[in-house]
Design goal:
Layout lengths: L2 E5 L4 H17 L2 E8 L15 H30 L7 E7 L2 H12 L3 E6 L14 H7 L4 E5 L9 E5 L5 H13 L5 E8 L5 H18 L5 E7 L3 H11 L4 E5 L12 H8 L6 E4 L12
Parallel strand pairs: 1-2, 1-4, 2-3, 4-5, 6-7, 6-9, 7-8, 9-10
Antiparallel strand pairs: 5-10
Helix pairs in contact: 1-2, 5-6, 7-8
Length: 295
């Protein structure tokens, strides 16, 4: 049984991501698991001198479990009110000691989670999300896909997915993974390449043709098309995709040699985050084949 993992700190943004996840899971016929990372003083630089009392940990664990039960009940009621009796998703929860990055990575590996759904809030969205942790750290260290949900975005049927690429051959496998996801919605996949006016048009067209030809031979899906996006830089190009492409989700690969790495530069991230109004699916630098979305 496939499960979507939703890290939560019980904030409004995290609650919204969880609500999005349960609607998504219903279509994907997957379950949802909320998780909370419990951070204790023993993880700090004083770990050698501070001993965290067992009774205090037990109390903290009990409080977190209570909050998770309340959140789960709320989501179950919300689901019941919106769709009535249902088979999917079943909603569960877990809490573990550690940083958000470590807890999420361990959960993904242990339970073979195909997708993590996280909240993303407002300007400077990718700075701090859960329990003071830095989501950029999770993006940098993850070997699984992350779906980031803006704090004010509600779920709606996914009809169009924009995939931003620099024609890296590695991205062909990502597109094939996206096809298994898009089929559930009968959604279009727009392959978008961002370039300025200075690019070599002949070389660009050759790369585009080779990339699309490779996809066609490997992904049996007739709702994939290509659109070049001319822009002064990557950030403005991605901004245009978010604002004008009528996409319901934008997908990017955080690759070692991709021009899209510019997006993850702090200043660029903050600039674009102010305008992101659709879910953002991020594939990691090194993605395990078993971690590719397959629904």
């Amino acid at each position: 049984m496939k499960t979507l993992l939703v890290p939560t700190d019980f904030s409004q943004t995290a609650d919204n991501a969880a609500s999005y996840a349960i609607q998504l899971a219903q279509v994907l016929k997957a379950d949802v698991k909320l998780c909370n990372a419990i951070k204790v003083p023993a993880e700090s630089f004083l770990a050698d001198t501070v001993v965290w009392p067992l009774e205090d940990y037990a109390s903290l664990k009990e409080n977190v479990t209570c909050d998770l039960k309340i959140a789960t009940t709320r989501l179950q009621q919300e689901l019941q009110e919106s769709i009535g009796d249902h088979t999917f998703p079943r909603i569960d929860f877990i809490s573990e000691v550690g940083s958000v990055t470590d807890v999420v990575k361990n959960m993904v590996e242990t339970e073979r989670i195909p997708l993590v759904v996280m909240g993303m809030s407002g300007a400077g969205a990718l700075s701090k999300l859960f329990l003071g942790s830095n989501s950029i750290d999770l993006i940098e260290k993850a070997d699984f896909p992350l779906l980031l949900i803006p704090g004010d975005v509600k779920y709606k049927a996914i009809q169009k997915i924009a995939f931003a690429t620099d024609f890296n051959p590695h991205d062909v496998g990502i597109v094939c993974s996206l096809v298994t996801f898009a089929r559930n919605f009968n959604a279009e996949i727009m392959i978008a390449h961002i370039a300025d006016e200075k690019y070599d048009s002949a070389e660009h067209e050759k790369k585009a043709q080779n990339f699309l030809s490779d996809i066609t031979s490997k992904a049996n899906y007739d709702k994939i098309y290509y659109r070049p996006v001319k822009s002064m830089d990557v950030v403005h190009g991605l901004d245009w995709i978010c604002q004008h492409s009528y996409s319901d989700m934008i997908v990017m690969t955080h690759g070692n040699h991709s021009v899209l790495d510019a997006f993850f530069n702090g200043s660029y991230t903050k600039k674009l985050a102010r305008h992101v109004n659709i879910p953002l699916l991020v594939y990691p630098k090194q993605v395990r084949s078993s971690a590719l979305i397959a629904f």
